[in-house]
Amino acid sequence: MKCYYLYLFILIGICCFSEVKAKNTGKVFNGNDPAVRYIGRTLVSPDGSVAFDWVGTYFETRFTGGNVSVRVSETGTSYYNVFVDNKLHRVVKVCGTDTLINVVSGIDKRLHNLKIQKRSEGEFGKTTIHQFVLSVSGRLMEEPVVRTRHIEFIGNSLTCGYGTEGKDRNDPFLVETENCNMAFATMVARYYDADYTLIAHSGRGAVRNYGDSVRVSKVTMKDRMLNTFDEDLTHKWDFTGYRPDLVVINLGSNDFSTEPHPYKSEFVKAYKQIIAQLREYYGNIPVLCIYPVAMQAPVYSYYETIVSELNDPKVFLLKLDKDLYNRTTDMGAAWHPGYRGHQKMAMWMIPYISTITGWELTNKVIE
């Protein structure tokens, strides 16, 4: 997972093609083929297609034949990391309706591992995977090993990887430079060899969203966290789909970024509601509440009140140091941390996660 800053240089600009027929080009597999394992919140249609929009949603399989294309439909424009045998193979841009996009080519026909990860937010597009198209000799095979740990992260732009590939803090945000794979959440998951789900949306808070004119916003992460899709409030998630071993909440910086700030009672109530919903659906798992680095208001006591009032031995609070990362050299685009800033956040969290979960620390590099 090294050389992250090469990502933009190997970006493949795939245009929004009109429909490309797959007749006689190879073997065709439905989006929900049993050999493909999806991690995250998805919706499967009767025709076998699989739809999702949350950032960080990924799917894994193994394949032979040296070539993989995916027939997709996209409501906007999304970007994906494609990994072959745990190495970044390419980045693809997905847009258009019923589009056939080549995601793997130029490799040998032996058995390989494939992981495709949605690196951009649901705000920019929802993807539907209709089919996988392989070469005539190709086939899909299930991954033999399933991870035994699962971490869910609930958050905002930092969890999404907003601007992580930007080169300077004054660079504007571009969808192309958002990459959740370079964010603290996925680093933590990789360190513990855990599956992960990112329930995150830039600019959203627990009770108030960034720049809102009111103290209490109409729809915040306490509402979105209940949905199958980030951008669709009508489809509620079936929480029997998975049960994480740990939930990490990184919210609050948007709530207090601009005036008017919510009252303490409003913030505490909304945050406690988030945890109550987690308890309802996930039971008595550890919940780690993060006090953000970039908090612009002295409200740490609000978080202490939340933990105190809950009086829940499985709810923990970790304060990230305000000087944890350098505000110049560790930044990506739009004054958000880049890879090095996120790496320092992950390095701060990992020892504490080990303490509250019992997961052993290793000599693995945090990257």
UniProtKB/TrEMBL annotation:
Annotated CDD domains: Endoglucanase_E_like (cd01831)
Residue spans crossing the bilayer: none
Domain of life: Bacteria
Positions of the SGNH hydrolase-type esterase domain: 153-343
GO MF annotation terms: carboxylic ester hydrolase activity
Name of protein: SGNH hydrolase-type esterase domain-containing protein
Family matches, as Gene3D superfamilies: Galactose-binding domain-like, SGNH hydrolase
Domain Carbohydrate esterase 2 N-terminal: 38-144
Species for this entry: Bacteroides oleiciplenus YIT 12058
One Pfam family from the record: CE2_N
